[in-house]
Amino acid sequence: MSRILVINPNSSHAVTEGMDQALDPLRMEGGPTIECVTLAEGPPGIETQEHIDAVVEPLCSLVAQRSSDVGAFVIACYSDPGLQQARSRTSAPVFGIAESAMLTALSRGRRFGVISILETSIPRHHRYVRTLGLESRCAGDRAIGLGVAELTDEDVTLERLVSVGRELRDEDGADVVILGCAGMARYRRRVEEAMGVPVVEPTYAAVTLALGAVMQ
Fold first, then answer.
1. Which of 25, 106, 190, 192 is deepest in the core (most CB within 10 A)?
2. What are the C-alpha distances in Å from 141 to residues 32, 201, 216?
3. What is the pLDDT of residues 3-22, one digit of tens each?
4. Residue 77 DSSP class
């Protein structure tokens, strides 16, 4: 089945639209369909552990419902909510954008840095890095201090992304940077141009892996 379903677990249509537009270069004539959907049951932004826990069951239910017409799923939240549970609900491959971004970053540099939205996200990210055994390859994780809804302010968001990205590069030694929120997708190219190092957009990374899976 040549359809990839990208699920935004928060209920922000602006985030889904931004991801959808960022994925346009991966849409090829005759290639797999890339469909982006918004989880209506999700919060406006996934910013806490409570938010993560709350979306797991509706997200997994959606995966189960769409298994008959989808060849691969992408969970488009950097916390990878419900990733293992979703994998148990379908025979199709399921990709988490955080895991996919870190795997992609390993091929682009020696040590990666993560730009998070809020300081409270960082401990959660560190736990995940440890779970994946990648502590030695993670240079640092720094926050821009904006919630998901605030990422639509382009001038403020871009300035903070570049500023924090340069701190990761110059102070922490990162030679590749990951945007640690799906809502940052529209800024990847501009951040990379400003910084001069590779910048990984997690949803793009995950969909690229999903394309490989469904086209084999």
1. 192
2. 34, 15, 35
3. 999 999 999 998 899 889 99
4. S
